[in-house]
# Entry
Amino acid sequence: MMIGFPLLMFYLWGCLQFYRGKLVSPLQGELWSKIIKEAWPTWYATKIYLIFCLYELFLAYFMPGPVVKGAPVASLNGKKLDYLCNGVTSWYATLITSYILHNYGYFRLTEIIDNFGPLMTVAIITGFAVTFTVYIVTIIQGNQYRMSGNLMYDLFMGAALNPRLGRVDLKIFAEIRVPWVVLFYISTSAAIKEYEMFGYVSAPMAFMVLAHFLYVNACAKGEECIPTTWDMTYEKFGFMLIFWNLAGVPFTYCIGAVYLHITSIDNGRPVQHSTAWTCFCYALLISGYYIWDTANSQKNRFRMILNGTYIPRYTFPQLPWGTLKNPSYIKTKQGNLLLTGGWWRYARKIHYTADLMMAFSWGFICGFNTVITYFYPAFFIVVLTHRVTRDMERCARKYGKDWDEYCRQVPYIFIPGIY
Ligand code: NDP
# Structure
């Protein structure tokens, strides 16, 4: 995977960039010589990517926000860590900064899509560099946790559970502050480029900007719900999380926006679909977003209210039915509560289903000329299935008979009445 992921990223981009989305043989020498030429890392791309990451780190350190407690950390004998949740203020500061940089000509946002190949290579190199650095520092400090003894596996899964730079938690930083923001700027960059070339932004390109805006905004506005999630409390900070967040997510989830950009140049006009199809894609995105946002917030707020850790937030947008009043739940012997009301009465992973609705809408808005634009939804199905399997096994072990009762009361996993 550590070799295959980066190669796959180059391959998909190369097929889009040089072969109009046709899946050419990955053994073709011509493909790779083109990729090496066009995606060779440059100092300019290095400066863009690293200055962005450092600026986000600076914001994560200094911007104001509420402090919330995480779940008990096993490697710290059950101690709860503090998390400064300044995602929203950092996100707005980033938006304002980029507007000033672009508008006053210090850094045109179109540079991002114009330097896509080198930027992707720089992100990939950074992903590896951070993986090795974090691993070595953790071993030197003796902070390794739950090690398997197999070097490759431990590099992949990580050694440290909650590495920090001062008060910045590196795991939450890498998951929230880099990938989705970069993704948003890639599509925004492509949209501005389209506007400069054709004098307007097409509905599919505007869709991409909206879709990526919703995702990054959701991560920022509900950040206080993240410290107690599985990734924060259980997953270690290894190649899987580091590489995937610093390079994989932004540079593969953006494939649709890159496709729309390249196709508009090839065709001399932006991609357009029938009004009905465009409306269907927007409706799928917005309804998926609504369920995803409210399901996640229902579950997280339910637990926070009953644990006494809930803090009311007025970050935009607060959607109706995001907080449940007196929902039904199961009190487990272990002490935790399992929500069975709200969206959670319909399926145990209803938020994954909603996330998949959005993922498919990102593919549908690109049409059906290439399968590459369906990489994200296809890959996402694999990721979520893998997560569900691991999570179900973990919960069954953790909650025993209470989990069986929960599965009896909420029998479906993804789609109510079907599966
Ligand atoms: P979940 O939000 O599904 O968290 C799983 C944990 O929630 C379980 O281990 C359990 O933890 C607790 N839980 C499960 N059912 C209930 C319930 N009924 N009531 C209360 N608690 C429950 O996992 P993720 O962290 O995987 O997903 C969070 C969001 O992030 C999702 O919306 C997902 O779609 C999104 N995501 C997006 C990705 C992307 O690449 N776009 C990748 C991964 C996730 P406990 O031990 O505390 O009981």
